[in-house]
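Dear support,

I submitted the protein below through the web form. The confirmation email said the job was done, but the results page showed an empty box. After a refresh the structure appeared. I'm attaching both so you can tell me whether what I see now is the final result or a partial one.
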Amino acid sequence: MTAKRVERVQTGVRIEKRILKVLKALAEVHDITLGDLLEGIVLHAFEGKAPFGDDSLAKIRSLKEVYGLDLGAEDSHQLSEDPAAGG
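What the results page shows now:
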């Protein structure tokens, strides 16, 4: 498969701290950048495909435990920030 040329842009996205830690660790496990991981997740989601196989899902479960990430899909669109936290 031939690599497709793309134009990437720098962005400042706010994301839940523990989710970011898990994503960074997962990217490291796969020896890819965080951006490449996120692009892959989004491209799979856009086509209604699961972005992770069984091995990656097992690693994600482990990383969620390490970083204390207790959020799931049912929590999406229901998260709020503590105003005292700043940031």
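Response: this is the final, complete result; the empty box was a page-load delay. Residues 17-68 form one domain.
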